[in-house]
Every structure is written in structure tokens, then in C-alpha cells.
Amino acid sequence: MAWTYILESEKLNKYYIGACHKKLNDRVLAHNSGKYGSQRFTSQTSDWKLILRLECEDYAHSIRLERKIKSMKSRKYIQNLLKYEDMRQRVIKQTRDI
After folding, report:
1. Antiparallel, parallel or unpaired: β 2-9 and 49-56
2. What letter would DSSP give residue 47?
3. Rounded to the nearest 5 degrees, what angle is found at the Cα of 74, between the Cα atoms of 69 and 80?
4. Residue 61: in which H helix or E strand, if any?
5. Beta partners for residue 47, in sequence order
6. Among 23, 34, 63, 92, which is 20 to 30 Å from 55 by CA?
7. CA torsion, points 83, 65, 70, 11, in degrees to nearest 10?
8. pTM recorded for the entire structure
9. Would you state the torsion angle of the CA atoms of residues 52, 55, 60, 64, taken in this order, to the nearest 10 degrees?
């Protein structure tokens, strides 16, 4: 199982979009602990909260979905993903069929 996920930092007022194929909770803890190095975006704070997780068929699918969401470059798009289940299902389907 793989995931595309969105984290939110209230301190930074920012979102982070990522993908993983391991335990998602461990991944969030790693972001908050600075495991990925001091030069990474998520190392700026340790208040990252998981606000959305999207289950994918495999890791390749989760990467495609991550890139699709990032390509939108829109806070509003992320907020709409959080709000609308049909929008989430549509983007999952779009990236599955590539």
C-alpha cells in the first residue's frame, strides 16, 4: 500500500505534499523530528499535522498523485481536496489511468 499525503503547519501557515510506501505515521514523525536533514522544507518547524491521506494502488501511483497536486500550485486546490470527496476521487482516478 502507498499513500499521498498532505501535512499542514499552523506555525508556517503552509502545506506539504508527499508520497510514501511505508508506515504513514512513521513518515509524519520523521518530518517532525527533522530526520530528512536541516536543509529540507519540513525541517523549518515540528508542528506538521497530517490533514489528508489518499490511498494509492502502488508507490508509482502515489508519486503521480503527489506531482499532480503539487502542479496545481494552489492553496485553494488543497482546501477543496480537503472539502470535497468527489474531487479527491476524481484526481485519484486521473492519476491512476496515466
Report:
1. antiparallel
2. -
3. 75
4. helix 59-72
5. none
6. 34
7. 60
8. 0.92
9. -40
Could you give the count of Cα atoms lying within 13 Å of 83 in the half-sphere of its Cβ? 6
Q: What residues contact 52, with CB distance under 8 A and at least 6 apart?
A: 5, 6, 78, 81, 82, 88
DSSP label at residue 36: T
Which has the closest alpha carbon to 70: 12, 18, 7, 14? 18
Distance CA 40, CA 80 (A): 26
Give the C-alpha separation, 81 to 87, whole Å.
6
**CATH no. of 2-96:** 3.40.1440
Q: Which three cell numbers stand for residue 92?
A: 485519484
* Predicted confidence (pLDDT) per residue in 2-37, tens digit: 999 999 999 999 999 999 998 999 999 998 887 877
Give ∠ CA 45-48-54 in degrees, rounded to 5.
145
